[in-house]
Amino acid sequence: xxxxxxxxxxxxxxxxxxxxxxxxxxxxxxxxxxxxxxxxxxxxxxxxxxxxxxxxxxxxxxxxxxxxxxxxxxxxxxxxxxxxxxxxxxxxxxxxxxxxxxxxxxxxxxxxxxxxxxxxxxxxxxxxxxxxxxxxxxxxxxxxxxxxxxxxxxxxxxxxxxxxxxxxxxxxxxxxxxxxxxxxxxxxxxxxxxxxxxxxx
Length: 201
Fold this sequence. Notes:
Largest sheet: 8 strands, parallel
Helix content: under 10%
Strand order of the largest sheet: 1-4-7-10-13-16-19-22
Radius of gyration: 16 Å
Number of domains: 1
Distance between the termini: 43 Å
Structural class: mainly beta
């Protein structure tokens, strides 16, 4: 792409603020992320089908959702700084405000992790998660989480899907592959704690 076309695309793009407080907030088209983005509790971030989200300027830049995330269509999340694992940060669904968040049909490339912390009834389905530097999906102290028909492929992944605590979590028809067989980690890892039950793989 020549610079003129790239500049035109940039002018027509949305640049995300570092804190999102407007409810709801809609992302569509081309979105540039130039800092860590925090979605406040009580705020819905709705990412429209076909949205292209580009993380710029630093490996730590990511998306922390303390509210609810709805990403129902085919979206792309990647970095402008290269194709190496960990070229940008994590998608973090954090706390009860993120309950019932859904990510569907997303292509998530060269990030760190998709994290679910103390958020219930979260669904991640039909997603392609490639080249993370950490786990594919990490679920901590969350219940009724569903991973359905996800494809997770990495060269240096720790675990494909990692559970720590929670209950009633479900994984169906996911494909997890690791091209670096010398790397530690499993397809699924479940750290069992009191009250955890009914996991189905």
